[in-house]
Design brief:
Order of helices and strands: HHEEHEEEE
Structural class: alpha+beta
Number of strands: 6
InterPro entries: NTF2-like_dom_sf
Shape: globular
CATH class: Alpha Beta
Radius of gyration: 13 Å
Number of domains: 1
CATH topology: Nuclear Transport Factor 2, Chain: A
Oligomer: single chain
Distance between the termini: 31 Å
CATH architecture: Roll
Protein name: SnoaL-like protein
Length: 119
């Protein structure tokens, strides 16, 4: 997975995958083993930490889904992109954010730094 746009899409798919076993498999496929996820609310490392953060978000926002926003830029092994947390029915986003993702030499996420624009 070397195309940064595809990595970002896979990253967002992890957040939308509600089956715990399948989600963990996705985490291990998208993230490096010691990858780091940081946002204003958490700072975790590794597959278990990332999986736990996603599971907690899913429990808190049941029935919602993450979608890529309009902003996407990349250079070298770094991408920045916007995202939205929207109700399944497609109403207005309840959370809007902006992330910066760093991809390692194997095409996996080494770090994601998240920012909440509207929460």
């Amino acid at each position: 997975m070397s195309d940064l746009s595809s990595v970002v899409d896979a990253y967002l798919a992890v957040w939308n995958r509600t089956d715990a076993t399948a989600r963990r498999e996705m985490v291990e496929g998208v993230w490096s083993e010691d990858g780091r996820y940081v946002d204003p609310l958490v700072d975790v490392r590794g597959w278990a930490g990332v999986d736990q953060v996603v599971a907690q978000a899913q429990a808190r926002f049941t029935g919602m889904r993450f979608a890529r926003g309009a902003v996407f830029e990349e250079h070298h092994n770094v991408a920045r992109f916007s995202w939205e947390l929207i109700p399944a029915a497609g109403a207005e986003a309840i959370v809007v954010g902006f992330d910066v993702a760093v991809v390692d030499g194997n095409g996996r996420l080494e770090a994601v730094y998240g920012f909440l624009d509207r929460y």
